[in-house]
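Table 4 source record.
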Amino acid sequence: MSLVTVETIAELRERIREAKGSGAVIGLVPTMGALHAGHGSLMDRARAECGFVVVTVFVNPTQFNEPADYAKYPRPFEADLAFCEAHGVDVVFAPSEGEMYSAEAQTSIDVGEVAEFMEGQFRAGHFRGVATVVAKLLNIVAPDRAYFGEKDAQQLAVIRRMVADLNFPVEIVEVATVRESDGLALSSRNARLSRDQREHAIALYHALLAAQSRILDGERSAGEVKRVAAEVIARYAGVHLEYLEVADPGRMTPVEHIAASVRLAGAIRLGDVRLIDNLLVSF
């Protein structure tokens, strides 16, 4: 079956109804387009586990707290379609903003504590937008499984919380972060980095590795771990550390004393490009 592109909720639901009628397990991969190998790993996992794979390509305006970031977000739609076809996707759902949000829409989803820190502190309203659009997509597609990347660990925690609290009948599947050869996490925003910025963008990953090493060596003070990481960031010119936190992996709340597994998460800026990354430290 060749790739099908649909733009309306009604047509997508009809395609899914037919697939479910044939007994297929439905897999959903929500994206904002500008697809790369990280997205490809989500699609490949979905293809391996599901009989019918839906990829959504929708740059969701409600999760951007900076209008300039939304305006600059890449939208290579034809390349994205070719990418999806190469990964065996059945349907690409590419709705307009009006199809997803009526002019009268007023409902949004606030997931509480899990969205308050880190990204929640620096991107006001971001997770409200994420939770709302993902809830809408889960309602529209009604998948058996939905696939999300570990690179956006706090987003994943937000979605897990929402799915549990609102009793969505879907399995959330976490897929490991895909990295470039030097360790930089793949991101659609990497394409906006200059050559010099790209060389320095690895700063965050190196800081996370240093923090991880300190914990595995026995350090239990989150403050000391963060200090070590900040020192690494400071070695890279043009890199601004927005935050680097040691957090509970499920609740995504900061911890002061490290007594169990933690999620190291951070955000940096290089000019007008903002990058995030994280590592789970288990011991």
